[in-house]
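Checklist before submission:
- one chain only
- standard amino acids only
- sequence pasted in full

Submission:
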Amino acid sequence: MFRTMLGGKIHRATVTEADLNYVGSITVDQDLLDAAGIYLNEKVQVVNNNNGQRFETYTIPGKRGSGVICLNGAAARLAQPGDVVIIMSYLMMSNEEAAKHEPKVVLVNENNQIRDIIRYEPPHTVL
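Returned file contents:
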């Protein structure tokens, strides 16, 4: 049996751009992808804290250190620059692997620079 578990998360990133005319995907600063363990072209779920939209897309790397979070193609209709989003990847793993798994949760500041990386999410806490 396999379980789908949170693999990596970029928590409360600020959308910097929305490009309706791009082919598709979400562009994310490569430093943030690396810190969360999210790969190029990996499927991610994006949750928009401003409007409640939830959608899936895939990642493409943005310039390191740029803080870029750009929704491309149709996803550009689901978020505007300034919106706060959570970007999550998921992993399939056995029960044994899941019992030991700790996701990478990347906390960012208002400029999408890494503030902290944690391996758990404390209950009832605002991060």
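Reviewer check: The beta strands are 2-14, 17-19, 25-29, 43-48, 54-62, 69-72, 84-94, 104-108, 114-118.
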